[in-house]
Write a structure and sequence with these properties.
The chain has 105 residues and is mainly alpha-helical. Helix content is 49%, strand content 4%. It binds a DNA duplex (13 and 13 nucleotides) through helix 2, helix 3, strand 2 and helix 4.
Length: 105
Amino acid sequence: MQPFTERVINIVKDIPEGYVMTYGQVAEVAGSKRGARQVVRILHTMSDKYKLPWHRVINAQGEIVMKNEEANFIQKHNLQQEGIDFDVHGRIDLKKYRFQPKINQ
DNA sequence: AGTGTGACTTGGG
DNA sequence: ACCCAAGCCACAC
């Protein structure tokens, strides 16, 4: 397994309940500033076997945009249950809920 | 090997 | 605030 993949998994796993991170943010902390799309791919393929809290990873605009409408609904529902609020446009206030991991992972 | 495709991001208009 | 174009990188065909 690639070290980048491993770091992404660890980072996502460490996102506490009630907080979120963006794809780009995870990628940057994992060492690839431009690897947002790889983070997407990794979550897509690894979230099952590693039990990752993929719903706590969203895009830089604070919104949830998934191909699958049902999964979209589930993600939003899960986040709301963890105490995260959505504004009238269905967006999350990143200033409030963004999780800042420690520098050295 | 070339092309298309994302659960993306950023900058500009 | 919204829309668009360009940049991005791994993977599937």
